[in-house]
Queue: 2 jobs
Job 1
Amino acid sequence: MSRLSIEGVGKTFPGVNGGVSTQALLPIDLAVADNDFITILGLSGCGKSTLLRLVAGLEEPTTGRILLDGLPVEGPGADRGVVFQSYTLFPWLNVRQNICFGLREKGMAAAGQREISDRFIAEIGLRGFEEHYPKQLSGGMQQRVAIARALANDPKILLLDEPFGALDNQTRVLMQELLLGIWERERKTVLFVTHDIEEAIFMASRVVVFTRRPGRIKSEVRVDLPHPRPYTIKTSPEFTALKARLTEEIRSEALAAS
Amino acid sequence: MKRASLFVPVSHGWRIGLGIAFFVAFVVLWWLITASGAVPPQFLASPPQTIAAAWQLFAQFNFGHDVGMTIWRVMGGFVLAAVIAVPLGIAMGAWKPVEAFFEPFVSFARYLPASAFIPLLILWVGIGESQKLAVIFIGCFFQLTLMIAMIVAGTRRDLVEAAYTLGSTESGIIRHVLLPGAAPEIAEALRQVLGLGWTYIIVAELIGASSGIGHMITDSQALMATENIISGIVIIGLVGLASDVLFKLLNRRLFAWSHL
């Protein structure tokens, strides 16, 4: 059975003040298996983020249903960890308190919170920054804390919405390696939205390509590159071939949209 | 190219020095005006006369008691207003129906001049302490409520969403996102409204009181003692400034994260 199944899920946003409604997502089907790392690749505004927000429970689908371990998704919850594109750490909490936020909401004892936060602080390489506040961290560090905060809750699935979109290219690549390393160790199920083709291939076991808006699934591409994946894999012939193919698919959408 | 000057911060020492410099310039100008004889001394007392008058007020006329009374009234009325305005403002900011219910009335009441209530309040509760507290309350409450409602309504939605995905319930969001996020701005609103309270108390004391800084000022008017009036005004300014500085320091201490 799949961990996450998306069945005929579509989303239409009503028009503002009686204006024209916007169809963001045509009904789509997608099954995500346990331990899968799925990247959703598409142009800006194609509805890929909408899909993620629907899975997170932050929006309600207009059609269809979403099942997590067979149970319907009704509203947001701790079983789906989310990392947003914008920096959403709580500015009044330090790094450790941010990572412990979900654990505190669960009512976990302080000792347990400490143990888990210690583990994830080490995992994201921020030992020595436990007492720092978000404003004292770089963008890349903030997103690492956001990943740790989501993982500390031990969610069934991790949802990431272009989490590295605002970072410079070098930091971005380091973050991809870090996240991939975490995934290889923790074996989480991941749904990762991006418009960056290289990022989509590098991280994924499967790339789902979206059409332009209204979004639907255009194609799915398996990525059978071995793990662990060093960044040098980006120059391998297999990687290059996948990149050429996906570039073609995205380019045709961009052309049609413009 | 010329070095930019817009928004360039000044050092702590310079900041204090510049701040004091204007006070000095102001006093010097005041002194020159009185020393030149352009204004008769019975209309405008000179700085030394004012200081002497203040000394005399404290030493001989137990003015400390008046200052104490005035501070007590401002704080009393302000605390009463805050105790109701803070929770009400938070509720209005967090729940739209609550806002829809109260906002129009509070917006209307905000424009009612607190000073104009003084004659009515004297009729209702006399010229005792409850009248003073009521004036401060009317003057501060509506303003404060609206400010707090606006601050809470402006809570970052992305933080609220993040908290929901981390498993927060609605009460968890209010306690762990709305309140800590809005707290520094609420404290700042309280500081500003306390300043408003200071202007109202003097008006209330001018009209009907048997003690307080405003009462001393009305008494001195009858005696043409402008040096007393001016000392009274300066002392109000100083006490207001002190309370403002204390409030600011407290806010910086309590909410260090928002000043990073």
Job 2
Amino acid sequence: MSPGASAPRVAVVDYGAGNLVSIEQALTAAGARVHRAQTAAEIADPDLLVVPGVGAAAPAMDRLREGGLVKPIRDWVAADRPFLGICLGLQLLFDGSDEDGAETLGILPGRTVRLDGAPTLPHIGWNQVERRRDHPAFSGIAPGAEFYFVHAYVGAPAHETGDALILADTEHGPRFVSAASRGRLLGVQFHPERSGRNGLRFMANVVAWTGAA
Amino acid sequence: MLCRRVIPCLDVADGRVVKGTRFVDLRDEGDPPELAERYAREGADELVFLDITAAPQGRGTLLDVVERTARRAFIPLTVGGGVRSVEDMRDVLRAGADKVGLNTRAVADPELVSRCAARFGSQAVVVAIDARRVRPGDALPSGFQVVVNGGREPVALDAVVWALRAVELGAGELLVTSIDRDGTGSGFDTDLLRAISSRVPVPVIASGGAAVPDDFVAAIRDGGADAVLAAGIFHRREVSIAAAKTAMAAAGFRVRAVDTEVVA
């Protein structure tokens, strides 16, 4: 079943950072019309902009720069248009990354740091996402429901200025921020596109939230 | 708290799932995306595809199978077998895999692990180690020897030494298979698992020998495994994902609730 012409349009930024198939498929299952954007022009004024990604910050930033995508992403968020960052797509929103010293987008106050003190690292598998406040993206999803994680670094919002961003956290040794939001910006450390039923519900909520905005 | 994972492994040859004791007596078990969908629905936490196609034309077929699977089962997928370069890994990830398993090629070219990790991050690089028991000696101090080429060719490399090296090079996860136990149903080699899991910070997936749900418990409790993998017993429906998780939960290990999974 293909979504109708009134379905929300979603641009997924394609900068060579891994698996886009699952993200496209999950968004499509959620009722969106999805296209990939390798350049600023290809973003093409969607209803929702998704920045996915796994891996290290420096090569990802290089690729975003090569595609001329840094400014469009910054402008998009500055205009408070609907945005979803997944995994590295959340981490890149902060000022910089300890992983390789990369300077990142600087949209959110804070840094990407190693999840030190974790019993195993990388943090791979299903873990509980515990909400600190309500958000339409988690509508109908049980408190503490499990989502799939695969990462060794986490976005750490700056104290005080960044505390208001924290939407949910997760424990793996220390607690870390597993979802952050500000206005219509949403970022998650887990992979909703790989999180089975809960993940599809989350994606459907985000798409519906976008359409309602 | 992080859940322990149950992972069905699908051996794929020429685009079909096959079963048999590693590479012999292969029998067609169906279409990979269909089986993947069934496992996702039954509560599998992740899937591993192992490409055992030796023929070069198997590559394109595998990518197609990976993509069709990624479009139907919304759980993570690791693909192993035949990845020889960063470009191979890129292709497999772009087809819809979340992680890539490196085995024989990584033993021959350990820097491949570093190159893949630098490009895609450690979390996407699983080093698969097939090992067998030998008499401990100077060259093989742990008494576990690495075997390559699908478990057929022993090499002069200690499995624990290789595990430590692989992690140092950037492996984000280790898939440890006991060749002695694989296909025998005599339980995991928990000594092998413990010898490795106790010395690395990365998650260890236990493989080879599972027959009953309590074997999974032993792999975690005695072997220190973070995840457990099996093939035949799941394909033949001798043990369900739910039964494996029930045993793990009863032993005090956190698992993801088995629920009716939605697939596209």
